[in-house]
Amino acid sequence: MKAIRRFTVRTVLPAALRDLDELALNLRWSWHAPTRELFASIDPERWDAVNGDPVALLGSLGPERLTVLAADAAFVARVEAAAQDLGRYLTEPRWYQSAAAGGSELPRTIAYFSPEFGITSVLPQYSGGLGILAGDHLKSASDLGVPIVGVGLLYGAGYFKQALTRDGWQVETYPVLDPDGLPLTLVREEDGSPALVTVDLPGGRVLHAHLWMAAVGRVPLLLLDSNVPENDDAARKVTDRLYGGGGEHRLQQELLLGVGGVRALRVWSRLTGAAEPEVYHTNEGHAGFLGVERIRELVAAKGLEFDEALEAVRAATVFTTHTPVPAGIDRFEADLVAQYFSGSNATAGVPVEKVLALGAEDYAGGDPTLFNMAVMGLRLGGRANGVSLLHGEVSRGMFNALWPGFDESEVPISSVTNGVHALTWVDPRFQALADGRFTSTEAADGTGWLRPDAITDDELWSIRRTMRGQLVTEARSRIRASWRERGASPAELGWVEEALSPEVLTIGFARRVPTYKRLTLMLSDPERLRALLTDPDKPVQLIIAGKSHPADEQGKRLIQQLVRFADGADVRHRIAFLPNYDIGMAQTLYPGCDVWLNNPLRPLEASGTSGMKSSLNGGLNLSILDGWWDEWFDGKNGWAIPTADGVTDADRRDDLEAAALYDLIEHQVAARFYDRDERGLPVTWLEMIRHTLSTLGPKVQATRMVADYVQHLYAPAAVAGRALDGGDLAGARKLAAWKSAVRAAWPQVRVDHVESGVGEVAQVGDPLHVRAHVSLGDLSPSDVEVQVVHGTVTESDDLSNLRTLALVHDEAYEAGRHAFSGDVTLDASGPFGYTVRIVPKHSALASIAEMGLVVNAS
Ligand SMILES: *Cc1c(COP(=O)(O)O)cnc(C)c1O
């Protein structure tokens, strides 16, 4: 293939229509229906033909049409009004600017790094949940006025497009994107030349990247693009595909994202005067090298030692882990990583051993030859979190080995449950119906979401039917297109007219196809499934979609198995696999499905978000109690598929869970859906929808999620970062010196002996007096906390339900010996146990486990 250099020439708009440029380039249109309607009104057919892409629409209008539009006073006035509305949205004070958000402790700017961003189908720079979440994070930050700047890569081909062969095998294509045709602006130097970021590669090579800016409402998203003339051919390909290639290609992508990303932020601030970020948030471990780059900066510019710079960086970094599946974590050969930080790439003050130590699996069960990006994320992030309560718990267990000596419950990983951006995912008609009744979708705390009496049964059922009907129409056209691609002739496709029904209970299942999500669980008993689909009275229809990772043959086999079943002439009117799941498809799929099915292998789904999008449209969830559903299922907002936790035979576990799923669908879901009153309305079903909207509605929104990040992670990180910075970084130097002294002295620290006293018969409410005699060597009593750890004694002689009490320093003997004492209140009956331990104490430690040092009484 010839390397054809292509570019898109953008239209120059007449002066009266200039504002259309900003309206098209600012992606707020993707969640602002009135702006989309304005564009659609220019030429509805063309708007559909360009799949609702404003930049493409404007590019396709000839000069004549533009002249006519410019002379249309009413249209020009609408453009002006829309531009003013956008202007207000971009500048007015919002939640973050109000006292409610927390005031002066808030960071001036937060940098948010992610390997993918799913904002609109027009900008296909995502593969699945991680990217969509990042997109929703930026949009909600914009709605709340949170000053975030996003950092990512611009992939030449984005993620692949999925099609099927005749016999149901997934095939991938990678349509090349042209940045000039996308809603992006090239970042330029004052002289007009493209701004350039560089990262050194081994062997004296240099990786160059241009910067593109996507305006996500108030949030600028900077995307690094290596496909530039300054690069050699190999370097041009670094950003060719999302998660393309393996090993070194991926490492280079992550170096560009992390190291190049920080440099991009510096360029952005220099050119726009934007405040430098005070907090850095890395969405999954891929961007972890951003911490190494910030250490390098501090070493070079402020003369800090590596360990001092590390403290300053850690304090202001937030790391979010997204996977409970070890295979989902990026790991590189440590030797490969070493090449990028040594030899001709060595940097004074940033020794390669120290970089390697950040990602080293130097703990029980680790592989010393590998460099682990999640481990680096945890070591560089002063604050870390999982993405649902359950996932936080699973993560604490998964990474416990990094904090030996501490209980799983003390592993410093918290959780913020994911959320979704309502205005992106709620059907615009449903939204319109809800406006003023489902009041604000922007309130950070979600209050006033839906008054239960705000909508009549008739209205609610009628909009649900409309949305189902719209999905059926779209699904038919996708089925037809897919069969045409698979080689069927129009004459064979008459049945598609009748495929699916706008009146039948519709169950949706769409997500990526890794094994743990169990796409084919529903096929465990094909006859049982067939019976449910073709039931004469209470039929069910299934709409399924999902892409398998191109290298995952097993995932492709699952898709094929499902497609072959769905191809069957006896069921194809009730079950369909729609190829090429993407944001565009998702936006009709969620509103159109009555029930959203999710059957992962618990607890491998970190959060899951598609079910949240369904619930905001009045869909009911039918799901394994995993991720967010484990937290918020309440018995009335959907159904929990019982899990066969503990059954070790995987096939048997699948069979048990599938049988439970069939039973639920038949006896509860379908039974209730088809249970109608004299008006033909499913009243109990509608009651469940109301309950879902009013209780889940506020919780599942990404505004709630972003507000949680601001208050529980960004604000504390900003405070910690400022304390260590202070202009001269004295705090960071002192903390590093203190940690080093504590480490040196720690071997001398011990609990010498413990005295305690309680009455003969201990009763609830009694005090337990504890006095501990300890040796602290060269440390002073204020360097440590001597704690009583108490709880319930379990059958295996461990403590559960741990609580701690800090003892107070009583007296110092000579030679580093001290006594500490205090009273534990026995606040519960039953087997009580306690022990005494010593941990380091410093106001700058984010958790007692931070240093991984603990001495227990023997
Ligand atoms: C929401 C969404 C996802 C993620 O869904 P999960 O339930 O988290 O798997 C993936 N792809 C698209 C297109 C989505 O809209």
TrEMBL record:
<dbReference type="GO" id="GO:0030170">
    <property type="term" value="F:pyridoxal phosphate binding"/>
</dbReference>
<protein>
    <recommendedName>
        <fullName>glycogen phosphorylase</fullName>
        <ecNumber>2.4.1.1</ecNumber>
    </recommendedName>
</protein>
<dbReference type="Pfam" id="PF00343">
    <property type="entry name" value="Phosphorylase"/>
</dbReference>
<dbReference type="InterPro" id="IPR011834">
    <property type="entry name" value="Agluc_phsphrylas"/>
</dbReference>
<comment type="function">
    <text>Phosphorylase is an important allosteric enzyme in carbohydrate metabolism. Enzymes from different sources differ in their regulatory mechanisms and in their natural substrates. However, all known phosphorylases share catalytic and structural properties.</text>
</comment>
<feature type="domain" description="DUF3417">
    <location>
        <begin position="13"/>
        <end position="123"/>
    </location>
</feature>
<keyword id="KW-0328">Glycosyltransferase</keyword>
<keyword id="KW-0119">Carbohydrate metabolism</keyword>
<keyword id="KW-0021">Allosteric enzyme</keyword>
<dbReference type="InterPro" id="IPR024517">
    <property type="entry name" value="Glycogen_phosphorylase_DUF3417"/>
</dbReference>
<dbReference type="InterPro" id="IPR000811">
    <property type="entry name" value="Glyco_trans_35"/>
</dbReference>
<keyword id="KW-0663">Pyridoxal phosphate</keyword>
<dbReference type="GO" id="GO:0008184">
    <property type="term" value="F:glycogen phosphorylase activity"/>
</dbReference>
<dbReference type="Pfam" id="PF11897">
    <property type="entry name" value="DUF3417"/>
</dbReference>
<comment type="similarity">
    <text>Belongs to the glycogen phosphorylase family.</text>
</comment>
<keyword id="KW-0808">Transferase</keyword>
<feature type="modified residue" description="N6-(pyridoxal phosphate)lysine">
    <location>
        <position position="613"/>
    </location>
</feature>
<dbReference type="InterPro" id="IPR052182">
    <property type="entry name" value="Glycogen/Maltodextrin_Phosph"/>
</dbReference>
<dbReference type="GO" id="GO:0005975">
    <property type="term" value="P:carbohydrate metabolic process"/>
</dbReference>
<dbReference type="InterPro" id="IPR035090">
    <property type="entry name" value="Pyridoxal_P_attach_site"/>
</dbReference>
